[in-house]
């Protein structure tokens, strides 16, 4: 599959491997360099070098090999099922479980567990890697996630995500004392320009992102908050709270570099989920109580202020 694009003005003078990552969603810097090594990237019809810097208006052609579908195996992994019918399944994902297979995580994922539990019932829209998956939460985030059992349900839930009628509310602990009792972070989020595993607030290739927060309790040096997503960008709550100077407790990617209060990974739990049932049209609301690891973290923060 060939992709051709013109280097935009704001990328003038940048390395081509970085520009490829910005222009081709999901392409890592190392993958871009491999494509160049294999002669699959040209500029103006000529082969390029990995360290090449581009100019605005350069015409870049990329030959992307067809992806090879990976077989995802059903695995007998226990699931905390909150709701299930012929259209949807709502699960309370434990902390530490990856949602779908990826490099380094080919087994033990939520998808492996869903395939065992649901068999062939899952929607095929997500393909062999993400069958039934409509939205995701990070490995170290626990809580509610809905999966679709058929394509019609998948399309309905995806539309609800797009028009924001599917509501997700999280609880988190952030570092520092939030001054205001509530607030909104409205800042676009895009891929970090040099670290492809991270997201960042950026106007360059950033997509609109809105997070509303409300203080639940204040501790010495920490704040327990509720966060409601208006949009659903990758790592949105983690990026937004770090952006306003209050990274999540335990988040060594966007916050403090050493684990705190016994947590290695962000203190974040998807506590509430609201949606419209794809078949009945009835509003549905689900909740998942704070897990033990979260309440243990709260107990180590000391008395509330």
Q: What does this molecule look like?
A:
It is a single chain. This protein is an alpha+beta fold and 305 residues long. It has three domains: 2-63, RNA-binding S4 domain (Structural Genomics Hypothetical 15.5 Kd Protein In mrcA-pckA Intergenic Region, Chain A, Roll); 68-163, Pseudouridine synthase (2-Layer Sandwich), CATH 3.30.2350; 170-270 and 295-299, Pseudouridine synthase, CATH 3.30.2350.10. Helix content is 18%, strand content 28%. The chain is built from six helices and 15 strands. The protein has helices spanning 16-23, 29-37, 110-118, 151-163, 236-243, 292-299; strands spanning 2-6, 41-43, 46-47, 59-63, 81-84, 88-93, 142-148, 167-175, 182-186, 189-191, 199-201, 210-219, 222-229, 268-276, 283-287. The strands form three sheets. Strands 5, 6, 7, 8, 9, 12, 13, 14 and 15 form a nine-stranded mixed β-sheet that branches. A four-stranded antiparallel β-sheet has the order 1-4-2-3, with no helix packed on it. Strands 10-11 form a two-stranded antiparallel ribbon. Strand 12 and strand 13 (222-229) form a beta hairpin. The termini are far apart.
Summarize the helices and strands and which ones pair or pack:
Elements: E1 2-6, H1 16-23, H2 29-37, E2 41-43, E3 46-47, E4 59-63, E5 81-84, E6 88-93, H3 110-118, E7 142-148, H4 151-163, E8 167-175, E9 182-186, E10 189-191, E11 199-201, E12 210-219, E13 222-229, H5 236-243, E14 268-276, E15 283-287, H6 292-299
Helix pairs in contact: 1-2
């Amino acid at each position: 599959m060939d992709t051709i694009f013109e280097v935009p003005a704001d990328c003038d003078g940048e390395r081509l491997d970085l520009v490829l990552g910005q222009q081709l969603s999901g392409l890592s810097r190392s993958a871009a360099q491999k494509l160049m090594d294999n002669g699959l990237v040209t500029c103006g019809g000529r082969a390029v070098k990995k360290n090449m810097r581009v100019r605005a208006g350069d015409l870049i052609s990329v030959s992307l090999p067809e992806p090879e579908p990976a077989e995802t195996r059903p695995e007998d992994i226990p699931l905390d099922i909150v709701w299930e019918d012929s259209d949807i399944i709502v699960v309370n994902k434990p902390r530490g479980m990856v949602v779908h297979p990826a490099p380094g995580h080919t087994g033990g994922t939520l998808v492996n567990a869903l395939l065992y539990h649901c068999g062939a019932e899952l929607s095929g829209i997500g393909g062999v890697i993400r069958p039934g998956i409509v939205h995701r939460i990070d490995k170290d985030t626990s809580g509610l996630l809905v999966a679709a059992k058929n394509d019609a349900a998948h399309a309905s839930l995806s539309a609800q995500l797009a028009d924001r009628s599917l509501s997700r509310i999280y609880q988190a602990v952030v570092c520092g004392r939030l001054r205001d009792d509530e607030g909104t972070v409205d800042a676009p989020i895009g891929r970090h320009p040099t670290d492809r595993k991270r997201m960042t607030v950026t106007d360059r290739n950033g997509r609109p992102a809105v997070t509303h927060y409300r203080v639940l309790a204040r501790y010495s040096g920490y704040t327990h908050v509720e966060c409601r997503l208006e949009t659903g960008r990758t790592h949105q709550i983690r990026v937004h709270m770090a952006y306003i100077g209050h990274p999540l407790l335990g988040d060594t990617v966007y916050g403090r570099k050493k684990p705190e209060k016994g947590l290695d990974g962000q203190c974040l739990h998807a506590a509430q989920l609201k949606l419209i049932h794809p078949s009945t049209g009835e509003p549905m609301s689900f909740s998942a109580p704070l897990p033990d690891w979260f309440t243990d973290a709260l107990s180590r923060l000391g008395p509330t202020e």
